[in-house]
Design a protein that fits this description.
This protein is α/β, with parallel strands linked by helices. It contains nine helices and eight strands. It has two domains: 60 residues, no CATH class; 183 residues, Glycogen Phosphorylase B (Rossmann fold). Helix 4 packs across helix 5.
Length: 264
């Protein structure tokens, strides 16, 4: 039973409209209870299409917005405040669960390659709970670094990302913020929710670059992060760890080259 269902119940609203659950995070019994709190449930798309953007667009049309089509995210330009004039790239190495974290040493190698080819400073971002982890990344990478872990509000994080040449991240909010700002981003993507949040699936063309997902396909994709492999403490899942440094660099390198070419 999702927290959102409980909030709907507590509102006491006469009309409560929701979506039919895919039961990814709730049991059938929980849904039998929660479904009664809605006056209307909108079924998923009949074509079985995956993707949060497509599903939400379908839901909007079910509410009466018949012309609504899924497109890319967008953040108003008024929020694009660069924190400094330096050239930099953003690394966001954290994740909500250790199994979704690409190895710190891999992020370090990518950062060294970016700095070697561009001279850009590395800016590390993340929540306060990731301070020790990110500090160790800064230490092993040995490139000019501004560690802002735990030091930015959400709006300040938007500003940091807005000034970056490229964002390199696990599957976190950082790549979606970058997409909404039009900043290139590369995401190390595991298989737990593959196709739900990334890669982006839309119904209309977008003028801003979408995140570039880098992944290693496995038969167990879409496990809802219930990994079938035995993981050692703090280890990433095989689908995340299996993404190589060279794969990620192949996705990152064109963005560094494009900026350097335009600067000449």
């Amino acid at each position: 039973m999702a927290g959102g269902d409980s909030i709907v119940r507590m509102t006491g609203a006469e009309i409560a409209i929701g979506a039919v659950s895919d039961r990814a995070n709730s049991t059938q019994f929980e849904m039998l209870i929660a479904d009664r709190w809605y006056t209307k449930l909108i079924p998923p798309p009949g074509n079985g299409a995956q993707g949060e953007m497509l599903f939400n667009a379908h839901f909007a049309r079910g509410l009466g917005a018949s012309e609504f089509r899924a497109g890319g995210p967008h953040i108003a330009d008024s929020l694009r405040k660069r924190p400094c004039s330096d050239d930099y790239f953003v690394v966001f190495p954290g994740a909500s669960w250790h199994g979704r974290k690409w190895p710190r040493e891999y992020f370090g190698e990518i950062a060294r390659r970016v700095y070697s080819g561009t001279g850009w400073k590395m800016v590390i971002c993340g929540g306060p709970e990731e301070a020790d982890y990110n500090r160790e990344l800064a230490n092993i990478t040995n490139v000019p670094c501004d560690d802002r872990t735990g030091q930015t509000s959400l709006l300040e994080l938007v500003g940091v990302i807005a000034g970056a040449h490229v964002v390199i991240s696990n599957e976190t909010s950082a790549v979606h913020i970058a997409a909404a700002l039009g900043i290139p981003s590369v995401c190390v993507l595991g298989g737990g929710h593959f196709g739900r949040f990334l890669p982006y699936l839309t119904e209309k063309a977008a003028s801003r670059p979408f995140p570039v997902p880098v992944y290693q396909t496995m038969d167990c994709f879409n496990c809802n992060w219930r990994c079938i492999y035995r993981l050692t403490e703090e280890a990433p899942t095989p689908c995340v760890e299996g993404v190589s440094v060279d794969q990620v660099w192949e996705a990152v390198a064109p963005f560094t080259q494009a900026v350097n070419s335009s600067a000449r």
